[in-house]
Amino acid sequence: MKINKLLMGAVISAGVFSGGIASATDLNFWSWRQEDIKAYEEIIAAFEETHPDIHVTYTAHEATNYNTILTTALAGGAGPDIIHTRSYGSLEQVAAAGYLEPLNDQVDLSTLSADELLGTTLRADGKVYAVPFASQTVLLYVNKDLFDANKVAIPTTWNEFIAASEALKAAGVTPLANGSAAGWTMEIMSGAFMPNFYGKEFFGDVTSGKTDFEDARFVEALEKFSVVKDYMPDGFEGVDYATMQQLFIAGQAAMFVGGSWELPGFTKAGINFDIMPVPSAAGSGMVATFLDGGYGVNAASENKEAALEFIRFTATQPFAQMLTDKLGNVAAVDGAVSSDPMLKKVAGFHNNATPYIMLVAFRFDTPTGSTLLQNGLQELFTGKKTAAEVAKDISDGIKAAE
Amino acid sequence: MSLASDHDIDLIYQKSLRKRKNMRRLWLAFLLLPPILMLLIFVFLPMASAVLYSVYDWKGLVRGEFIGLGNYYDVLFKPRESWFLFNAFKNNVVVFISLMIVQNGLALVLALLLARKPAGYRFYQVVIFLPVILSTVIIGFQWKLFLNPIFGLVNKFLRMVDLDMWALPWLGLPETALGSMILVNTWHWVGFPTLVFLAAIHRIPKDLIEAARLDGANEWRIARDIIWPLMAPAVTIIVVLTFIGSFNWFEIPFIMGSLEGSPAYSTDTLGLLFYRTAFGSVSAGGSNFGAGSALAVLIFIFIFTFSIIVTKYLTSREIEMG
After folding, report:
1. ∠ CA(A51), CA(A57), CA(A33), 5° rounding?
2. Which residue would you say has higher pLDDT here, B288 or B249?
3. pLDDT tens for each residue of B105-152
4. Looking at residue A80, what is its pLDDT?
5. B183 pLDDT more than 60
6. Would you tell me how many other CB atoms lie within 10 Å of the CB of residue A206?
7. Which residues of B touch A367 (CB under 8 A)?
8. Hey, of A174, A190, A236, A243, which one would you mutate to test binding to chain B, going by the most B CBs within 10 A of its CB?
9. How confident is the model at residue B82 (pLDDT cuts 50, 70, 90)?
10. Min Cα–Cα distance to chain B from A24, Å
């Protein structure tokens, strides 16, 4: 009897396994998010539960070389079935070359806002080539303990921000951890400070061609932003990303400008912090937001239908909820509710937001707006050029871009 | 069974000689084939493909149409691109001249001192050469930490000895970044020219130096008129290697600065410019294989031509030791 049961079990499991191997479609999924491997494996397991005939393997490549690795593989006729794409200009490189499957008629995109879809839409044909996954927000982190210890109130207006910075400095605390050694952290910082000065309309005006970067609003924003260098660490010119994180985590600096992607790290480090937009003259300031990327299908994939099935899954609320819970991302798909108060706050900031200008609108041609701005800000902050000169360089560069 | 005649022995001998000759040829071919194949696959093939790539228009990694010298025109004459090329080239020239003076000059002094075998010279020899065997990546990161404006050893030391005004953000200022990197390169590499110079000095016959000393020449005279001219072959090698190294300079500025030659392109080099153009970067945008290949070909032609000229010129000045 016992033996019979055992035998039966063996026969059944053999049948299940061989059946599984015979009929499952194997999909490769490439990404640059090495830190998210565990979370994605859990998300994929949830997908495979409802799709037992599809098996997805997640592979994460080194982030800074991901675009090169991906395009090289695609150009060689290889590459994964499911592609974690970056957004805007980086998406265009892959989509314009015809490597991605257009999704408009194949995936229900109604859960996504037009702003978010913009990040994965090819400008040339207006088609969507990836399902947007998460937006990032540029904002200000404040160390509440340091403010309390030095009896400085957390600022709510621009003037209070200056006054608080002066007070912290007088107390021997570095007000702002950020440095200018890494160009990209300067661009991030400008995304937190400059929109309040150049205003909500500037993005629309400059992208529609109504004005250029020599606009008085932009020059003035550069000038006002550069005041901040008085509150950055001594020798900020040599402070890179790792150092500024260290300064904030070690409680040597009271504020840090970064993105919503810093939340897990700072929480884990155990800092008693709060997040906020950089305050404007009138009070509540704007944050800058951008779409981080999306999920697309390799147009040359042999398992396109199965891959599309996975992509459809990424456009649903349950997926967005997992992305929020497991990865602490502000999911692009509507309907996800976060239990994390910080993430809730970030989502709230989106009511008063402006696109993160150079990434969203000027990373399509070379020179990119990002290189121009990063380089210009280093020149401005190290005193090599004035705000007007930097604005002219950016404007000329953008006009000459192709 | 009779003994083999002389004739037979001769035949056998010749046969074995031929066999041995063939064996030798086979053996040579066997030894030479791998390096020749390696050269073909890893040097000539990439070079040929770079030339081929450079005459096409590229959309990312997809090859477009044939455009002749279009890419060369772009990198050489378009205002923005030519500014980058000139700026990077200028930095490479600064690197070459500085390394010649600081690194190789220091190496020469060290070699002359070590050649006199001061107490513990073996120890010094090892210490000076030690950094050479370390990886450039490690050295770049280590010195980036040393030069950190807040936690770095260099500035901590400067503040300790009351030189606060000298505690600068070395890698963050356009004025000091390139110089700092050149000094790091010197720290890394000075052992190599020192060793080559030292070997060259040891090769000089002792009687020449002793004869000069007997004739009443002082140490400076001996160094200038006997050692220096006779170590010319070593100088040739070091100058050419420094030249090639300076114009291919990539690792140190890439690790200690950034792909963009941060801050404000003050540490940009031809190597970084090539990498950025060919492969793109997150902020600088997409890759352009055509322009990148054109740059690579131009850099190669420049280094190749000048290396030959410099070698020819320097060898012509070398004196044969009788």
Report:
1. 120
2. B249
3. 999 999 999 998 899 989 999 999 999 999 999 999 999 999 999 999
4. 95
5. yes
6. 22
7. 80, 284-285
8. A243
9. very high
10. 33
Closest CA to B208 of B186, B230, B188: B230
Sort out which chain B residues have CB atoms less than 8 A from A93's CB and list them: 60, 286-287
Distance of alpha carbon A218 from the chain centroid: 24
Q: CA–CA separation, A369 vs A356, rounded Å?
A: 11
Interface of B with A in 243-282 (CB under 8 A): 258, 260, 262-265, 279-282
> How many percent of chain B have pLDDT more than 90?
67
**Domain spans in chain B, listed from the N-terminal domain onward:** 6-54, 75-316
CB pairs under 8 A between A and B: 130
Nearest CA in chain B to A372: B284
Q: Do A72 and B61 touch (CB under 8 A)?
A: yes
Residues of B in contact with A61 (CB under 8 A): none
- Please give the structure tokens belonging to residue A192: 């937190």
Query: Is pLDDT above 70 for B1?
Result: no
Peptide bond into A367 cis (omega under 30): yes
The shortest C-alpha distance from A355 to chain B (Å) reads 16
pLDDT band at A38 (very low <50, low <70, confident <90, very high): very high
Q: Which residues pair with A176 in a beta bridge?
A: A255
Q: Retrieve residue A62's tokens.
A: 């080194």
Closest to A237 (Cβ–Cβ): which among B59, B61, B173?
Answer: B173
Cβ of A370 and B151 within 8 Å?
no
With 70 as the cut, is the pLDDT of residue A9 above it? Answer: no
Q: Are A43 and A326 in contact (CB under 8 A)?
A: yes
Q: Give the one of B61, B150, B174 whose C-beta lies nearest to A384's C-beta.
A: B174
A364 to chain B: nearest residue by CA? Answer: B285
| Beta-carbon separation of B283 and A363 below 8 A | yes
- Domains contained in chain A, CATH given: 26-134+291-343 (3.40.190.10), 137-289+348-400 (3.40.190.10)
The answer to whether B281 and B268 are in contact (CB under 8 A) is no
Q: Are strands A174-176 and A253-259 parallel, antiparallel or unpaired?
A: parallel
- DSSP assignment of A75-91 equals HTT---SEEEEE-HHHH
User: What residues in B contact A365, CB-CB < 8 Å?
Assistant: 285
B269 phi and psi, to 5 degrees? -130, 170
Determine whether the interchain pair A243/B288 forms a contact, defined as Cβ–Cβ distance below 8 Å. no
Distance CA A152, CA A171 (A): 10
Is-contact A72 B61, C-beta < 8 A?
yes
Tokens of B61: 């990694």
Residues 6+ apart with CB under 8 A from B315: B233, B236
Task: Judge if ipTM > 0.85.
Answer: no
- Using N-to-C axis directions, what is the helix angle for B232-247 and B191-203, rounded to 10°? 160
The percent of residues in chain B predicted with pLDDT above 70, rounded, is 97
Tell me whether residues A179 and B264 touch, CB distance under 8 A.
Answer: no
User: What single string gives the DSSP state of each residue in B223-262?
Assistant: IIIIIHHHTHHHHHHHHHHHHHHHHT--HHHHHHS-TT-S
Taking a contact as any Cβ pair under 8 Å apart, which residues of chain B between 3 and 62 contact chain A? Answer: 59-62
Please give the residue that has the higher pLDDT: either A264 or B126: B126
Examine residue B263 and say whether the peptide bond preceding it is cis (omega within 30 degrees of 0): yes
> What's the pLDDT tens digit per position in A66-123?
888 898 888 888 899 999 999 998 888 889 888 999 999 999 999 888 888 989 999 8
Q: Determine, for residues B264 and A243 on separate chains, whether the beta-carbon distance falls below 8 Å.
A: no
CATH fold of B75-316 reads: MetI-like fold (1.10.3720)
Nearest CA in chain B to A89: B285
Given a cut of 90, whether residue B185 has pLDDT beyond it is yes
